[in-house]
């Protein structure tokens, strides 16, 4: 800790990060051990976070992330979208296909930014806010591939006709961005994706990842 930082705030944020990394919650004792502070300090931290709905405790006393975090999370999408737009514009113009940034939202893939090419006679209409299951479509499948190989670069994923008849997709996951799970991809009206598209999508995903770091 430096003179310019708050020890209490730092501990509170560490509590939230610890709770976010577990599905079953943590007890006061477990948090005390992980933080290296006594139980009284943990009780005070949890009480404060509960007042802001950032933490909730179940009947068994285990602390979990509260619903207040969702209200904060909603403000993340505009920031992520803004950071991704330059790379998406370049991708859409280069490939001549609709480019998109997709993030995980629960069990679904959510398109948060979409850029259409300006020079093509026709392209797939794909709108921000479009949702689909993670196991359908290139965007979701690319995210799942990254989950299965977190220490390796999964490359890109290709699909055809899974979300829209006659449409093909290519997507690559965002790698190395803390707190953001998503992919960058394109969707086009074609029976198959041209060979150069996959590597170009990977490059765009890297650009977006760098912008978000």
Automatic annotation (TrEMBL):
Residues 68-213 form the IclR-ED domain. It holds the Pfam family HTH_IclR. One of its GO terms (biological process) is negative regulation of DNA-templated transcription. SMART domains: HTH_ICLR (SM00346). The keyword DNA-binding applies. PANTHER family: HELIX-TURN-HELIX TRANSCRIPTIONAL REGULATOR, ICLR FAMILY, HTH-TYPE TRANSCRIPTIONAL REPRESSOR ALLR. This is IclR family transcriptional regulator. It comes from Streptomyces cellostaticus. The lineage of its organism: Bacteria, Bacillati, Actinomycetota, Actinomycetes, Kitasatosporales.
């Amino acid at each position: 800790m430096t003179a310019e930082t708050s020890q209490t705030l730092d501990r509170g944020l560490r509590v939230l990060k610890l709770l976010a990394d577990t599905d079953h919650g943590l007890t006061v004792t477990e948090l005390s051990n992980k933080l290296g502070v006594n139980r009284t300090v943990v009780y005070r931290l949890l009480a404060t976070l509960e007042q802001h709905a950032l933490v909730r405790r179940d009947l068994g006393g285990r602390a979990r992330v509260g619903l207040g975090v969702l209200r904060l999370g909603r403000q993340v999408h505009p920031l992520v979208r803004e950071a991704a737009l330059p790379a998406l514009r370049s991708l859409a113009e280069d490939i001549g296909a609709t480019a998109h940034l997709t993030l995980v939202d629960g069990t679904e893939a959510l398109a948060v930014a979409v850029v259409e090419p300006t020079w093509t006679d026709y392209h797939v209409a794909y709108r921000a806010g479009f949702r689909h299951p993670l196991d359908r479509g290139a965007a979701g499948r690319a995210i799942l591939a990254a989950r299965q190989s977190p220490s390796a670069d999964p490359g890109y994923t290709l699909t055809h006709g899974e979300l829209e008849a006659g449409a093909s997709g290519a997507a690559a996951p965002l790698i190395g961005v803390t707190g953001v799970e998503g992919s960058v991809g394109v969707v086009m009206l074609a029976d198959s994706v041209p060979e150069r598209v996959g590597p170009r999508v990977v490059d765009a995903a890297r650009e977006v990842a760098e912008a978000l770091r």
